[in-house]
UniProtKB/TrEMBL annotation, chains A, B:
It is found in: Cell membrane; Membrane. The keyword Metal-binding applies. It comes from Pseudoluteimonas lycopersici. The lineage of its organism: Bacteria, Pseudomonadati, Pseudomonadota, Gammaproteobacteria, Lysobacterales. This is Magnesium transporter MgtE. Belongs to the SLC41A transporter family. Gene3D superfamilies: CBS-domain (3.10.580.10), MgtE N-terminal domain-like (1.25.60.10), SLC41 divalent cation transporters, integral membrane domain (1.10.357.20). It is a multi-pass membrane protein. Acts as a magnesium transporter. GO terms for molecular function: magnesium ion transmembrane transporter activity; metal ion binding. The gene is mgtE. The chain crosses the membrane at residues 289-307, 313-342, 363-385, 391-412, 424-452. Keywords: CBS domain, Cell membrane, Magnesium, Membrane, Metal-binding, Transmembrane, Transmembrane helix, Transport. One of its GO terms (cellular component) is plasma membrane. Homodimer. Pfam families: CBS, MgtE, MgtE_N.
Amino acid sequence: MAEAVRHDKTARQLRLLSDALDSGRLGPVRRLVNTLSPAEIGNLLESLPKAQRTVVWGLVDPEDDGEVLLHVGDEVREGLIADMDPDEIVAAVEDLDIDDLADLVEDLPDTVLDEVLKSMDRDNRERLEQVLSYDEGSAGRLMNPDVVTVRTDTTIDVVLRYLRLRGELPDHTDHLYVVSRRHQYLGRIALQSLLTSEPNMPVNRLIDDEQPAIDVHESEGDVARQFSDHDWISAPVVDDNNILLGRITIDDVVDIIREQAEHQALGAAGLGEDEDLFSPVPRATKRRLLWLGINLGTAFLASSVVGQFQTTIAHIVALAVLMPIVAGMGGNAGTQVLALVVRGLALGQLGASNVQVLIWKEVRVAALNGLMLGLVLGLIVWAWFGEWPLALVIASALTINLLMAALAGVLVPVTLKRMGFDPALAGGVILTTVTDVMGFLSFLGLATLVLVR
Amino acid sequence: MAEAVRHDKTARQLRLLSDALDSGRLGPVRRLVNTLSPAEIGNLLESLPKAQRTVVWGLVDPEDDGEVLLHVGDEVREGLIADMDPDEIVAAVEDLDIDDLADLVEDLPDTVLDEVLKSMDRDNRERLEQVLSYDEGSAGRLMNPDVVTVRTDTTIDVVLRYLRLRGELPDHTDHLYVVSRRHQYLGRIALQSLLTSEPNMPVNRLIDDEQPAIDVHESEGDVARQFSDHDWISAPVVDDNNILLGRITIDDVVDIIREQAEHQALGAAGLGEDEDLFSPVPRATKRRLLWLGINLGTAFLASSVVGQFQTTIAHIVALAVLMPIVAGMGGNAGTQVLALVVRGLALGQLGASNVQVLIWKEVRVAALNGLMLGLVLGLIVWAWFGEWPLALVIASALTINLLMAALAGVLVPVTLKRMGFDPALAGGVILTTVTDVMGFLSFLGLATLVLVR
């Protein structure tokens, strides 16, 4: 319900913008767009069909171009970059932070990338190359090398004077990092404690060395989990020798958490999280076709099971009427278990030590539901077709399929994970294949045994 | 794949813990548990079956009890509280921040709540009552009334002296808030600028009044979106008269984003995001039963369509074999569109102005896929059953059902949203009912028209 009462600022802007675009006068559109933050502009661009998107993109203040590109999905981004001149692209990206630039690099045309690298000073170019040397999806790719460090052998007063000289600090600086002569990470000092301590206090009395540094090779999923487990705003990144390399900030972590959520929601339907709502028809068709093709294959598998029982069905046509119920209910019950298990795996809550307990719990739940729903289903079928053996067959088949669904709901994702696949992506297809096949097999098989004489 | 290479710290801890528990010696378990942060302990408790959970919960350092309770789902929390004495509960929660306490209040037994209220000083009790007076899911419930404010008519130097006197600042303080005599919000000053400015600078030269304050009645979804659009660490909350009431911090926003993601992933399977992996069997059974009951109803709806064509099926049994393919493929195609549209709606990207464009895009995608997959399916059916009219019928039925799936994939969630329902929850059931009914109707209907003479 919270979703429903949302003020829907974007939807409102969209309506205003759409009216302005329809009127054909671009002045008001430009004014409207440039009252928004880059993230809001990005969201707005994603919600526009291709033609309008190009028009609005042309009206965005060039100063915001780089930030906007950071806030749209890969597919939309490609399209926006394709609409820009090389000079525009260079101008847009050259002022970005190193970690943000690293995020964009692979979407830039090679010639443009060369220009960007040439326009950077040597220091920054080296920093960018360092960030790019780490794997995508690792802490190294998320970090910003721009950090403020201090040494232990000094006082607050000296630090304060240094900060005043330095002027502005990097965004989201909540701690200064204390390093050794060899730039090894020793701990951090909160800006807060700088403000609330006496000026003559030595720095080493204020060091907080409780926060562990993040290993540069750690996965971004682990980074996100640590941030949310410990309520961090920023965290230092170090290499294998504990040398301080940079800093990860919460804003990038929030983006990762959002992406993970989208990855799971869209991945289960066979879509990438960067899918553009308004992708060109040929591209969207091609991508969906692959997924539907896989599903066609599994559908044939289930059909071939039904095919084995054509004689039985020819005898008792009611079986054809009822068989989708058994298969479908198994799919629904299994999907519930799958959803729970996928979440448990993502949170690291499921391992060898408790999978058996979970299976035993789910099997009991399935047995109870199978008995109760089987009773209801049996009674309805008896009332509909007036044959109690048929009612008995469907009630038993439902219970069997719910049990199979419970087993598959736990074992399919756990096995996928163990084999190194993402259970959120492939789990659903495999699960419903199991429940379809087992649903048809148990129902039509039992019917052949019991009803056909 | 990122998921697969995760270090799975929790899973590792779980294994260690499980071994320690099995050995029956609780000393090592206690030591292991108390090296973890409250969030990690919460995650660990969620991953333990009930009996082990009670043992481990008894070993947690009482100082961490309150924080741990904040980091588990509602269902697990209830169980943990049920294991505690009233005195323990009071001790656990009385030191929590006001916003966190507000989060727990409704799970506390009434007698315990009275004790907690009695143990608080009047100021804090009034603050808690104020926070509780706002709706759940609103900004008012998220805010912490503990903020540091300064006035305009002073200098940095005075502020710095005030901060040193005050000592520790509330967690995640990155800005001080500037208020008028009547406590109206005027703007904020970054701790950074306090550190980098000259001491004699007047406060009003440093005020940043660009960040809009959050309305206390705003929904938590809107709050989360603003935080991630603007990369905020904290934001002021005001009432209708612009009086500063409190402050929301990014750590609570991260929790909301995670909850929203879980709500969507589990909600689509008819589960609440607070579902305990190891709920007691009777409770889990009851909850699943409701969902499966709804699905049983929709399954009968689809079956009754098949029931209308029993004579046709008795003629041509191959129809029974093939009909699940048409229905199932429609469900898969529709689910893809649904997933895209639900995301678009959640981001506010879809409104009256662009729904038509989207429908037109999806209809073209469905038509193309319908033709191509229909051709493949038709060829396979022709090869299998050797009858080209049957092949033609199934190819046409598939195309029709994919078109219906595209329409339903857009219109079902958009309509649900317009009616004030959460499209992520009910969308899937309604969609697959549409695609099942239309799949059976188009395939068996066409077959009756074309094949039965």
